[in-house]
Specification:
eleven-stranded mixed β-sheet; 37% strand
Length: 209
């Protein structure tokens, strides 16, 4: 699952890269995006700021509502379930990335490994979005098995990467066509292992449904 990605380009640069318009409304962005943070997505032809993660409202032992948790990853085998189905059928988006991060190493000493497309300054990951009462518009990243891909060296799941020829199909095609794109990336990936501690900057629990 992906709980961290890197994105340093601004909205104008993203709009130019994906032939989209720059949406209205400013927002502050961190170069490293975590669940619950604001990131940029391409939705309905515009680059828009949204919160990373669909809110999952939990209840305490006495039935009281607890602070929502961001469900930031959507498994491909769960897209037909109630939590994801409407967004998958009606609100698909592109998530611009420069790289995504995974944790490697022994527990308590995990370090960051970055995965990206070689010689590609920005690439697109399949996303879903929806409005929410808790955080306004929010998005989640679609994840699939990494079997048979370079990413399998690092993790058994990876984001669904979309080549330029598949982005329009993901955004506007029928659900069955979009689902056919939910597969591991078989092209080469750049894998950069670092000594940076994984835990730096993390903010609470991350969920995948």
């Amino acid at each position: 699952m992906c709980n961290l990605y890197r994105m340093t380009k601004n909205a104008s640069e993203v709009a130019a890269w994906f032939d989209a318009v720059e949406g209205t409304g400013g927002a502050n962005f961190a170069a490293e995006v975590y669940p619950g943070y604001t990131g940029l997505v391409v939705a309905e032809g515009a680059v828009r700021p949204m919160t990373w993660g669909f809110p999952l409202v939990l209840k305490g032992k006495q039935g009281q509502p607890l602070k929502p948790k961001p469900v930031n990853n959507a498994r491909t085998d769960k897209l037909a379930t109630g939590f994801w189905r409407h967004a998958f059928e009606h609100r698909r988006c592109l998530i611009p990335l420069e790289a995504w991060g995974e944790a490697e190493g022994p527990k308590g000493r995990m370090t960051r490994t970055w995965l990206s497309l070689p010689d590609t300054p920005i690439f697109a990951v399949a996303g879903l979005w929806r409005p929410s009462d808790e955080w306004g518009d929010c998005y989640s990243m679609v994840m699939t098995d990494s079997d048979g891909t370079d990413a399998a060296q690092v993790h058994d799941r990876m984001p669904v990467l979309l080549g330029s020829e598949d982005q329009t199909r993901w955004l506007g095609g029928p659900p069955e066509d979009a689902f056919a794109l939910c597969r591991g990336w078989t092209g080469p990936l750049a894998i950069a292992r670092t000594g940076d501690p994984w835990a730096r900057g993390t903010t609470g629990d991350r969920l995948l449904l």
